[in-house]
Amino acid sequence: MGWDSREPANASALAFLEALFPGEDLPGELVLWGAPSRASRWHSPAGLEDVARAAETWGKTENVYFGLALQDRARAFEAKRREGGNPTPENTRGRNESAVAIGGLWAEIDTTDGDHKATNLPTMEEAFDLLEGLPVAPSILVLSGGGVHVYWLFRELLTIETEEMRGEVSRLVHGWQAFLRERMKAKGWKLDETHELARVFRVPGTLNHKYTPPRPVTVDLFEPDRRYNPGDFEPYIPEGIEAPVIPQGEDDGRRLDDAEALRLSAHLLERARTRIEAGEARHVTTRWAFLQANDNRIPKGIAASLVEPLERAATRKGGGRPIDPGEFARVLSWAYGKPRRAPWATVEGKLEADGPEAPPRDAPAEWAAGLEEWRGTFDRHGISTGVPNVDNVLGGGWRERRLYVVAGLTGTGKTAFALRVAHAAAEAGVPVLFASYEVEDVEIRARLVAPLVGMFYGKALAPDLLEAKDRNRLASAWEDYARGAGARIFVSVPLPEPDATPRPGSIAWVKAHAERIGRAYSRPPLVVVDYLQPAATFSEGFNGDAGNLRLAVGATSLGLRDLARSVSSPVLVLSSIPRSAYLKRREGYRLPELGDLKESGEIEFNADSVAYLWPERDDWEAHEGDDEERDPLASRPILFRVVKGRQGGTGTALLAWNPPMGTFADGGKPERKPREKRSRGKDEAKTFDADALASLVADDGKLNGGTAEIELERAFTIAAAEFNVTRKKFNGIVAKYGDRFLEKKRGGIPFLVLAPGEGER
User: Fold this and answer.
1) Beta carbons within 8 Å of 279's beta carbon, 6+ residues apart
2) pLDDT tens digit string along 611-670?
3) Greatest CA separation found in the chain?
4) In this structure, are 701 and 661 located in the same domain?
5) pTM for this one?
6) Are 475 and 550 in a shared domain?
7) From the CB of residue 185, how many other CB atoms can be counted at a distance below 10 Å?
């Protein structure tokens, strides 16, 4: 079965890796290696999608390979140190002695299609004929550009838990390739020896740069359900095949007596309980505890006594996924198959140096793993909004696993903004789920297509009023868009479906659509929800009462945040603004605050980022809020103001919004204008003191229960504009006069709170 060329380039890599390394909580790490740079990258097998993307990006400039066996980083580093090297993740490849698991058997058949020195090679057609005649059919065939990589998948990942098993696994790989070599030798062909557990093969979806132009590495046969047990290959292994000699790490051979082992186990259990109480997932703590037990020579039988108290401690805390006795046994066996590291000189000395309050021994390794994960983010970029100013203020665009809330007054282009965002993502190859609770499907699509032909979307919504040439032009663009970027935009409108599961319009319904799209495109989609308040009416907790809407909105925003985390999607949800915000607008121009959100408390807390689409000051003051005085065809300046950014900070971008076209573009830099009610002259910085800050909070803050409060960042922005005060000076005043300003946080945002009467001092 050939791979569908219409899929994204990394889809074949991801599907291939998931087939080769099945299951969850996989041991070790997956290593990528590049040539000619000879650089390595270590990845967690839990993030195979990141591995596929990294390989795709890296493979555009050089040859990229992956290790056929998952690797123990600590043991690979130890081997490099024994050789006199200074190991880093960039200069250390996988080793035979550090391999911890394989997903199947493999072989590399060079053919006459490639640039090889050997001449006794089959053609590609002859190689396929040979493979079809084997007693065990391949599961996957990858065309490498100069030959074919052949894989036979195991039903389950084959873990290497002991050194004896390492020898058996090596014998199996070596023996199966020896059988293939005999088959090929009988036809006069040569088969390269690739039986090492440290062997690397090319990643599908990359390029073979040995040739000009580079040749793509593609999946030709993909039958992931064709799987075998390791014993299925034993009848074909020639007699006399022995495992290659694999170097072992150092071991002082020291043994603990039972009394020492029991004493040390009690100490280890106390440390494990401390980690669980601190919030660490139970399966992480379990792996750590058993590795510690093995490293320090605690007999496996005594280490097994940790099973029940570990489970009781984890159950009380409730963190992490459940681990049954069978899972404990598997993890225990896995840990005791690891090489021992840094044995203790004496139990007494170790207990003294490594008490319950000391950091765990593997903390440096955990830091190293964290560094690698951080470096891995270099290959992950945010999804562009299509407007560079907005990308900058968001910190690089929409990021996976985050919930973005964009709110605004009526008539500030929220839906138009969401549609432009969806279009930009689709143009970049990202699938999009647009869940519309207000606008019909056909209107959404018309509003997406109309700007592409320079047509006001209002005219596109009334095709019967269009001239024939305009109607044909729009229809043609519609068809072209459906075959291009539009094919990646999925519009979902909740329609009544009695007894449907999940309920149309519910968060579970949105999640099901997002997961389906993610599977189809092998990457999480951008999810757009237009908009929050009507979506909340589809929640299970909404009973139709207006008073119940607040609770429903809170539950829906929480559900969308959880959706972003579980599907690994960026989720953009639009939100309305309450009537009070309109009333404040009539009192004079003001910038929006976090508390302006409708049903704001829960939304503020659950969102990773909150932004407003807000009229720009000059535009608003020129028309005094009267849209009738404005040229209906002219673009309008609109602020995209981020007031909460859990990861990307806050800031403001100026946009040019064309309402009839429904488009947004960069509008330059917004001007910061001082207000007229406080003017301090040239020596403004010198006059900024506690009284000035109190006056600022009293004048610009909002009343809440008899106190005036203002976001700390907003207070500094005003102080910087009006007093020319530095951040250092501002922070110094806040710290020095803390008795007057009660600083607190709401939804992660720091506020300054001024007690009643303080502003009059």
Assistant:
1) 317, 319
2) 999 888 777 666 555 555 666 667 788 899 998 887 666 788 888 888 888 888 887 655
3) 100
4) no
5) 0.45
6) yes
7) 12
Reading across the β-sheet that carries 744-746, which strands appear in turn? Answer: 702-704, 707-711, 749-754, 744-746
**DSSP-assigned states of every residue in 97-160:** TTEEEEEEEEEEEE-TTS--S------HHHHHHHHHTSSS--SEEEE-SSEEEEEEEEEEEEE-
Residue closest to 530 by CA, chosen among 499, 571, 473:
571
Angle between helices 690-700 and 712-723 (to 10 degrees): 110
**Strand 218-222 versus strand 140-143 pairing type:** antiparallel
Number of helices followed by number of strands (H, E) in the chain: 27, 25
Q: Alpha carbon of 24 to those of 46, 157, 291, 371, 372: distances in Å?
A: 7, 10, 19, 22, 20
Residue pair 64/55 in contact by the 8 Å Cβ criterion: yes
Please state the domain count of the chain. Answer: 4
Q: Do 550 and 522 sit in the same domain of this protein?
A: yes
Helices marked H in 21-99 — which ranges? 48-58, 73-82
244 within domain boundaries:
no
The span from the first CA to the last CA of the chain, in angstroms, equals: 80
Q: Taking residues 336-354, what's their average pLDDT?
A: 49
Tokens of 211: 């040739």
Instruction: Write the DSSP string, 553-601.
Output: HHHHHHHHHHHHHHHT--EEEEE---HHHHHHHHTS-----GGGSTTHH
519: nearest Cα among 431, 428, 401 = 431
| CB atoms inside a 10 Å sphere around CB 181 | 18
Residue 212's φ and ψ, nearest 5 degrees, are: -125, 115
Predicted local confidence at residue 611, as pLDDT: 92
Which residue pairs, CB below 8 angstroms and at least 24 apart, start in 267-275?
A: 267/351, 267/356, 268/292, 268/293, 268/296, 268/298, 268/306, 269/306, 269/309, 269/310, 270/356, 271/356, 271/360, 272/306, 272/310, 272/313, 273/309, 273/313, 274/356, 275/360
Tell me, yes or no, whether 273 and 328 share the same domain: yes
Q: Is residue 143 assigned to a domain?
A: yes
Residue 376 lies in a domain: no
Domain region containing 321: 258-370
Beta-carbon neighbour count of residue 380 at 10 Å? 14
